[in-house]
Amino acid sequence: MENETPRRTMLDAFFQTHDFLVAHASMPIRRQLMDEINWDDRLIAIKGGRGVGKTDFMLSRIKEIEQVYNEQYEREKAGSIARRKPKLVRPCLYVSLNDFFFTQHSIVELASKFVKAGGRYLFLDQIFKYPNWSRELKRCYNKYPDLHVVFCATPVMPIEEDNNYLQDIARTYNLRGFSFREYLNLQTGLRFRSYTLEEILSHHASISREICERVHPLEYFKDYLDHGYYPSYLESKSFETALLKVMNSQLEVDVLMIKQIDVSCLHKLRKLLYILMRETPCALNISSISDEIGLSRATTMNYIKYLKDSRLINLLYPEDKNFPMKPTKVYMHNTNVARMDFTRVIPPLDQYETCFYTFVHGAHKVNATERSAMFIVDNQYYFDVKEKASSRDTIRPTAVGELETGRGNMIPLWLLGFLY
After folding, report:
1. What span, in angstroms and rounded, lies between the C-alpha atoms of 167 and 47?
2. Is CB count within 10 Å lower at the N or C end of the chain?
3. In this structure, is residue 365 part of a structural domain?
4. The domain spanning residue 128 has which CATH number?
5. Cα–Cα distance, 308 to 420 (Å, whole number)
6. Which domain holds residue 140?
7. Looking at residue 122, what DSSP letter applies?
8. Handedness of CA 368, 370, 372, 378 (dihedral sign)
9. Residue 373 has pLDDT above 60, yes or no
10. What stretches of 50-155 show up as alpha helix (H) in DSSP?
11. Percent of the chain with pLDDT over 70
12. What string of DSSP letters covers 180-245?
């Protein structure tokens, strides 16, 4: 009888894909979020907009864990006697939930087999494609106390704040696109650290001078505004084509599919986004926009909220105000997205305002103010944004787009890109 080929187990098949992806993962710089996460938590959500590198982020973490385990294995093997060789453990497994396997099998079933094989860290991608994913994650959490689960989530997915199953057990962390600091480190090979907002406000002149002794940030800043926020700029294919694909996925999947909106509304969503791309930063004229796209005011406001949740736009509200109130101003989520209307020449100040919001709002509360200042940050710091530095000092902190080193209250805008 001919020898039969051994049948692969479910884990064998997943590990084969896992090994290929981990070997080919590309994270050219270490993201700061990697050191901010408490990896001892047993259920971790990595939340972020499309295109910011969530999958590569998880694969990079897997590499770090596996390196530690492999080094430990080699030490134990070197110190063992011939008959007592240590067992090689596979601590991590990356799985995408878009695999057809999950049409008939559950996450709990996968976790059970993985834990029995000695696994400790389960990384799940595309989890929104699995029905009742939050219920399954809670079952894993309760059933396997030694298992750590890390999963990617799109911005519109409810995690612990709106999800009864995951309240008090899931920890959510936000992965943003490249900061200007990360982009500059990547382009130059340098390793600048990040600064807190308080450090920048107090010492921006000396900090900017120290950085400018090693590099001229303004030589890189325009390129960052054009294409530096998304890691896809590193790929050889057209950045614009890649970003257009990301934006369409945000509309078609993050908004339509997850929010369960009829596909017939896609054209109106796209039209709404294009109207905002033409005008932002701007105040909202809801009546005019509603008439142009043929929707009620209430539906238009809901769609605007969906665009914000999917990280295509940002909404600037007065202090203590929020949706469903009309925002004071609308911005595109970042300057890379803003420039996707190729028929428009965006004024520099509009770019710098958008950039300021993108830099600051990730870790700080940014609001409109009734004073003459453009922004108030954390209900405490009033900020203006200007294109060029004035000959006289300003009365409040002012982020200046075309300023290399700080002086007085005038802070180089690029330096706020060092907040993460």
Report:
1. 16
2. N
3. no
4. 3.40.50
5. 21
6. 10-174
7. E
8. negative
9. yes
10. 54-79, 107-116, 133-143
11. 95
12. HHHHHHHHH---PPP--HHHHHHHHHHHHHHHHTT--THHHHHHIIIIISSGGGGSSS-HHHHHHH
